[in-house]
Amino acid sequence: MVPSEIRALFAMVARPEVVSLAGGAPYVSALPLDAVGTMIGELVAGKGAEVLQYGSAQGDETLRELICEVMALEGVQGSADDVVVTVGAQQALDLITKIFVDPGDVVLAEAPSYVGALGTFAAYQADVVHVPLDEGGLIPSALRETLDRLRREGRRVKFLYTVPTFQNPAGVTLTTARRAQILEICAEHDVLIVEDNPYGLLGFEGEPMRALRADDPDRVIYLGSFSKTIASGLRVGWVLAPHAVRAKLVLAAESAILCPSNFSQLAVREYLLTQPWREQIKAFREMYRERRDAMLDALDQLMPDGCTWTRPAGGFFVWVTLPEGLDAKAMAPRAIADRVAYVPGTGFYADGGGRRNMRLSYCFPEPHRIREGVRRLAAVVEKEIRLRDTFGGVEHDGPGGVHTPGPGIV
Amino acid sequence: MVPSEIRALFAMVARPEVVSLAGGAPYVSALPLDAVGTMIGELVAGKGAEVLQYGSAQGDETLRELICEVMALEGVQGSADDVVVTVGAQQALDLITKIFVDPGDVVLAEAPSYVGALGTFAAYQADVVHVPLDEGGLIPSALRETLDRLRREGRRVKFLYTVPTFQNPAGVTLTTARRAQILEICAEHDVLIVEDNPYGLLGFEGEPMRALRADDPDRVIYLGSFSKTIASGLRVGWVLAPHAVRAKLVLAAESAILCPSNFSQLAVREYLLTQPWREQIKAFREMYRERRDAMLDALDQLMPDGCTWTRPAGGFFVWVTLPEGLDAKAMAPRAIADRVAYVPGTGFYADGGGRRNMRLSYCFPEPHRIREGVRRLAAVVEKEIRLRDTFGGVEHDGPGGVHTPGPGIV
């Protein structure tokens, strides 16, 4: 673990005049706060002896049953007995890595991949091997080649970590056809899959995608979270695991935190039982779609030639690739000086990749701020291009390094 | 990690006809639940955008300042910048062990010691070496002998783990004179101290004891918790650490859970800012003192000759030693059949000790239930003594083994 440069950056980003396209915080103010407050107040007053007391290490049973109903929306048929409630999906990642990974073991991850997962893998000294993705998500042929190569090299692959739907940071989604292929390739190589799915219900078109877990219950460990569909401050996530893994997870969770908070868990339970949560998710989706549109429109209109970006169909993020010779990490302080922030791509690679990339998030700022942010960013990029044309470009040969996530860039 | 026998036992203990003297759950129903509910409801309605959002990995700054005020009651002068908020003190224990302990390293712990700590030490493959205690707490001469021996053996001692005040499970408190000696011995041997102090404010007589941390800020890592002074279901604890350790703790916490729950943290912050928390702790103390008295009176009146027990001046627990030839672990199922439960002593030893011991807790049952529980327990012990006299006693040579804690036996 090393002190993160991103941390220092984020102190500056907190200034109100800066438009932050960096953070991954959901827009929780869109919740009906009065109704939620009343609900929670009555819950504590009426059931305080349970709400304020220790619970079981596995998590509240009724909540685990409700979680199964939520997962059913993406085709997952799981038993409440195989669900473990965790302190956000981050804790699930930590426990899974603790259980499976010995130092030097290989973990496969998309290139780019979620920074918080990379931080956890690094903490357990996993050797992260990236597999490229494109607009259709993880590329099956690349996965197969990587697994073949690692097998020839005699390396131990512990699992494939993937965010198949509305990926963080790339904003892309694994196609239906590829889902079947990924499952098949992992079955052939007998590799576990850790499917991290915090954004699956936040799609802007059509029905939710079918989760990988829906079609291979024995191979897939599924991570879910209420951070984006209800509220991140509750820190309630979960893992659905094959039965033998679940038992190990409960013991590891017990050792790590004794038990998750009943206060948070029963607030979620009550919310799911008494509030119109499906309608609220629909409202979130519509709000985020409007913000996604604002960002893509602004990028289309304002970004200089040579920049490309993904077009997310859900979730929080757009992944931008800068023209050759530009360095998004070196540019970040200059962007902040010009009052716009993003996350440099290097944080999402364990191998030094991502120097030409930026993650832009549209989840938190309102649409007019998103447009203003992109306007400022486009001007910064234009200046960088002029500098490159005058003084020559940057060579991308240095290591990028893994940063610990920082709650600001979830 | 092995499946815990205690877990199976606890399923039976949940039956209402059983008097449980096993659990370590605080009596949270003594809180003014209506007032707390109203406070939390208004907090969510009024500050939902903060309460329901991600926070920093280190924890809320105002809460950390308030934690310093709480610690000052036991003589601790700490800076909010050196406090890390954790998911109960259990997470602090986990993070400290993760940072300091490599497999095979020695951790010193009282004999007996807190089961949840032993579970965590086992998870990181620490070699726990016990140091005996008596009614005055950890015995300084025994600590010195143990450290001298380990030094001769060339063993690496990573830290001394101790619950100096109202110890779990023994109910004893380290005397003031011994506190100075323990600090001196650890300084001589350059050994860190992890001081776990969840019960310090729950003393039944006089002023709070002065924490070890108060007299050696550089050597002592201090763990605190609101589980017993406010409510266990919030899962808010903390660690106050020397500055260099604090930085490592924040990174480890970030990797493990991203950040602690703002929902829980700001509920505690609001409670400390707006509710009469000192008066509430006083009310808790008086309630627990009445229960302690009920237990000690009943033990004095009812327990057969040959049994001995500690006389706690605060906290939740009495530690009973059975006559020679009896086995508290073997007796536990028979006690449950006779509708009384306790925790067998073996759970509190990493080395097979504690076969003649039971932990009795008086924190949760009301006084008349405590008396009834002790009455049943005394009858069970009498039967065991008769069996021993008829068939001979048990030889205590088998290993006791470490159990993971189970939230029921905090």
Write a structural description:
The first copy, chain A, is of the alpha/beta class. Chain A folds into 2 domains: 5-29 and 279-389, Aspartate Aminotransferase, domain 1; 54-274, 3-Layer(aba) Sandwich (Aspartate Aminotransferase, domain 2). In chain A, 44% of the residues lie in helices and 14% in strands. Chain A contains 13 helices and 14 strands. Chain A has helices spanning 5-13, 33-51, 61-72, 88-100, 115-123, 140-152, 176-188, 227-231, 243-257, 262-274, 277-302, 328-337, 367-391, and strands at residues 19-20, 83-86, 106-111, 127-134, 137-138, 157-162, 192-196, 220-225, 237-240, 308-309, 317-321, 340-341, 343-344, 357-361. The first copy, chain A, has an 8-stranded mixed β-sheet with strand order 2-9-8-7-6-3-4-5, with helices on both faces. In chain A, strands 10-11-14-13 form a 4-stranded antiparallel β-sheet. The first copy, chain A, has a two-stranded parallel sheet with strand order 1-12. In chain A, helix 7 (176-188) links the parallel strand 6 and strand 7. Chain A is globular, with a radius of gyration of 21 Å. Chain A starts with a helix and ends in a 19-residue tail after the last helix. The relative contact order of chain A is 0.18. The model of chain A is unreliable at 398-405 (pLDDT under 50). At the A-B interface, helix 2, helix 4, helix 5, helix 9 and helix 10 of A face helix 2, helix 4, helix 5, helix 9 and helix 10 of B. Chains A, B: Homodimer. Chains A, B: It comes from Actinomadura montaniterrae. Chains A, B: Keywords: Aminotransferase, Pyridoxal phosphate, Transferase. Chains A, B: Residues 32-376 form the Aminotransferase class I/classII large domain. Chains A, B: InterPro entries: Aminotransferase_I/II_large (IPR004839), Class-I_PLP-dep_aminotransf (IPR050859), PyrdxlP-dep_Trfase (IPR015424), PyrdxlP-dep_Trfase_major (IPR015421), PyrdxlP-dep_Trfase_small (IPR015422).
